């Protein structure tokens, strides 16, 4: 196993963080302050501008716990990690801690993804994979107090542990992933596939069979623990699923979101409207990653194809049917689908013009979307 280039990864991480800091500084001041004003803007104002949308829910849960049944849609590990040091440091610290945890988790994920991508396609593919991830148009969610970074870290680390046949480590990481997002429980499927791939070694003795197969129980255990907590709080084991309708989500057929999107774009929404632009962004993100998943099935290890297929299926069957944008938040959910970034890196190796275009387009959109987020615009 080749060692990851620590210095290069750190520079990429710090450089992409600096871009978001500069967007916050220049964007907020120039758009909110009076012209020719000499009044300073407090540092806390810049920090608080990142406390938007779901971040406010995670911070609130970290501070006071689950006060409303609707909060149960937000899984507990991320707010718990904020709450532990936050209770010691005080109220001022929660947002800063949430952002710190998110960014540290991203840094850890970059090292994990470098190893995975190197195994899949070599060092050049690995470098481009983590580059595209850091400058992706919605990568600002990795900077905010969202749980995207944490879930990416835990899910990718689980799959790397499976690749290395470190079964107990994979089980523990999978348990933590299932406590971060409901989608984490689906890591049991890649676990079973890798177990089947290693069946000759696994079946060589009873001891190896137990040591290899038993840890898979830990993955659904993570979800079971949260279900037990939901039952204790509300009397409903599946309260986290029951409240999804409050947040505009409901179970649907995978194709329903596409049908509604077509109607919204070409019939219901006037050209150039706010709604039309948002629908286009989420629909484009969804379709692009479906295409990358299809292309990647012949380029990547089947485990990774299985994982991205499950993630895509999970967002397609929980679309916001009945809302104006049925694929709302998919621009954020696709950040966790790291196999697509590996596939994109592989494609760009043989298409230099695509790589150059992405180096211009991705950062420009990232700066634009980040600014919209800190200004409180509808970017969830």
UniProtKB/TrEMBL annotation:
<keyword id="KW-0256">Endoplasmic reticulum</keyword>
<feature type="transmembrane region" description="Helical">
    <location>
        <begin position="357"/>
        <end position="375"/>
    </location>
</feature>
<keyword id="KW-0328">Glycosyltransferase</keyword>
<feature type="transmembrane region" description="Helical">
    <location>
        <begin position="209"/>
        <end position="231"/>
    </location>
</feature>
<keyword id="KW-0812">Transmembrane</keyword>
<dbReference type="Pfam" id="PF04188">
    <property type="entry name" value="Mannosyl_trans2"/>
</dbReference>
<keyword id="KW-0472">Membrane</keyword>
<feature type="transmembrane region" description="Helical">
    <location>
        <begin position="129"/>
        <end position="146"/>
    </location>
</feature>
<dbReference type="InterPro" id="IPR007315">
    <property type="entry name" value="PIG-V/Gpi18"/>
</dbReference>
<feature type="transmembrane region" description="Helical">
    <location>
        <begin position="167"/>
        <end position="189"/>
    </location>
</feature>
<feature type="transmembrane region" description="Helical">
    <location>
        <begin position="97"/>
        <end position="117"/>
    </location>
</feature>
<comment type="pathway">
    <text>Glycolipid biosynthesis; glycosylphosphatidylinositol-anchor biosynthesis.</text>
</comment>
<keyword id="KW-0337">GPI-anchor biosynthesis</keyword>
<feature type="transmembrane region" description="Helical">
    <location>
        <begin position="9"/>
        <end position="31"/>
    </location>
</feature>
<keyword id="KW-0808">Transferase</keyword>
<keyword id="KW-1133">Transmembrane helix</keyword>
<feature type="transmembrane region" description="Helical">
    <location>
        <begin position="302"/>
        <end position="321"/>
    </location>
</feature>
<protein>
    <recommendedName>
        <fullName>Glycosyltransferase RgtA/B/C/D-like domain-containing protein</fullName>
    </recommendedName>
</protein>
<feature type="transmembrane region" description="Helical">
    <location>
        <begin position="333"/>
        <end position="351"/>
    </location>
</feature>
<feature type="transmembrane region" description="Helical">
    <location>
        <begin position="277"/>
        <end position="296"/>
    </location>
</feature>
């Amino acid at each position: 196993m080749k060692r990851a280039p620590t210095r290069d990864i750190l520079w990429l991480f710090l450089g992409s963080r600096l871009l978001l800091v500069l967007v916050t500084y220049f964007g907020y001041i120039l758009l909110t302050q009076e012209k020719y004003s000499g009044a300073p803007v407090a540092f806390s104002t810049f920090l608080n501008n990142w406390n938007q949308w779901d971040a406010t829910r995670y911070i609130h849960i970290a501070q006071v716990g689950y006060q409303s049944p609707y909060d149960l849609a937000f899984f507990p590990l991320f707010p718990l990690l904020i709450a532990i040091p936050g209770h010691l440091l005080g109220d001022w610290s929660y947002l800063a801690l949430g952002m710190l945890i998110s960014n540290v988790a991203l840094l850890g994920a970059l090292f994990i993804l470098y190893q995975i991508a190197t195994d899949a396609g070599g060092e050049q593919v690995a470098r481009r994979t983590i580059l595209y991830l850091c400058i992706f148009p919605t990568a600002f969610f990795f900077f905010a107090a969202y749980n995207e970074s944490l879930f990416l870290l835990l899910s990718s680390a689980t799959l790397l542990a499976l690749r290395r046949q470190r079964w107990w480590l994979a089980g523990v990481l999978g348990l933590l992933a299932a406590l971060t997002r409901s989608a984490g429980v689906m890591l049991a499927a890649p676990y079973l596939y890798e177990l089947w791939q290693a069946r000759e070694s696994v079946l060589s003795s009873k001891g190896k069979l137990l040591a290899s197969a038993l840890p898979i129980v830990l993955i659904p255990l993570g979800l079971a623990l949260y279900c037990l907590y939901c039952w204790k709080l509300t009397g409903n084991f599946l309260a986290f699923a029951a409240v999804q309708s409050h947040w505009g989500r409901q179970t649907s057929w995978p194709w329903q979101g596409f049908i509604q999107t077509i109607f919204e774009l070409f019939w219901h929404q006037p050209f150039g409207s706010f709604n039309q632009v948002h629908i286009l962004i989420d629909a484009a993100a969804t379709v692009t990653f479906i295409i990358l998943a299809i292309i990647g099935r012949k380029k990547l290890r089947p485990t990774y194809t299985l994982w991205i297929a499950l993630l895509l299926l999970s967002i397609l069957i929980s679309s916001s049917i009945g809302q104006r944008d049925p694929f709302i938040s998919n621009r954020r959910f696709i950040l966790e689908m790291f196999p697509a970034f590996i596939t994109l890196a592989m494609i760009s190796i043989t298409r230099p013009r695509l790589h150059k275009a992405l180096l211009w387009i991705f950062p420009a959109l990232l700066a634009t979307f980040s600014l919209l987020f800190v200004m409180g615009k509808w970017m969830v």
